[in-house]
Amino acid sequence: MDFGVDSPKPAVIAIDLHRGHLDPAVATMPLAEDRAAVVIEANRRFFDGCRATGIPIVHLVTTYRDADEIRSNPFWRTRADNPTATRKNVERHNIEGMPGCQVMPQLHADGDWIVNTKKRYDCFVASDLDFMLRRHGINTLLITGVNTNSCVLATTVRANVMDYAAVCIEDCVDTMDGPAAHEAALTCIRAAFGWVMTGDEALRTFGRR
Q1: In this model, does residue 209 exceed pLDDT 80?
Q2: What letters, b where the CB count within 10 A reaches 16 and e where it falls short, cover 114-134?
Q3: What average pLDDT does this structure show over 133-148?
Q4: Between the CA atoms of 5, 10, 11 and 14, what dihedral angle is there, to the nearest 10 degrees?
Q5: Which of the chain's ends, N or C, has fewer CB atoms near its CB within 10 Å?
């Protein structure tokens, strides 16, 4: 398969696979518990395969200093405390020191990279992600995580316009906004921004060892 780069050098971009979404005991913006279990296991299997084939894992973790950094987003401000909004807890989500800021332990391993300065849906905003990727020669991003229709989609779009080859791993992403939003995001990615494949397909395509 032609990915438009001379020689693909991939890394996994694991978006917000933290307790704030996936641990029902502490999550402030939780994925449904049954869906969380599925996405955790799919990512665990994919990450194990990537590590075995020499593909690095980069964990992106949303972390705010305080609620003011959240409220400065006009749309998010309108979601706070709206009882019908899936993101009604946005102003109380992943403030520094909260347990939700921790990567799910079964998904983290020694040698993984962590970027914990993510502030917006687009993982490149206010973080050193691009610097780190380019310094390590990464040109192909295998994108997993939560939520498909916000952080995953926004990061895939940004990766595309920054001239990375963007690949969304469809069995390793999900959203708290439901299956229709999930499928719509994957449709947008396929149409204009990158490739969509399963974790097994990605390992067969990009595995090095």
Answers
A1: no
A2: ebbbbbbbbbbeebebeeebe
A3: 98
A4: 80
A5: C
Q: Which two structure tokens, joined as six digits, stand for 141?
A: 């991003």
Residue spans per domain, the chain: 10-206
Cis peptide before 147 (omega within 30 of 0): yes
pLDDT digits (tens, 9 = 90+) for 22-51: 999 999 999 999 999 999 999 999 999 999
Q: Which residues of 164-182 are buried (b: 16+ CB within 10 A; e: fewer)?
A: bbbbbbbbbbbbbbeeebb
pLDDT tens profile 48-104: 999 999 999 999 999 999 999 999 999 999 998 788 999 999 999 999 999 999 999
Angle among Cα 183, 184, 188 to the nearest 5 degrees reads: 115
End-to-end CA distance of the chain: 19
Question: In terms of DSSP H, where are the helices of 162-198?
Answer: 179-188
Q: Which residues does 120 contact at the CB level (< 8 Å), separation at least 6?
A: 73, 126, 154
CATH entry, 10-206, from 3.40.50.850, 3.40.50.1820, 3.40.50.300, 3.75.10.10: 3.40.50.850
Residue 140: its H or E element: strand 140-146
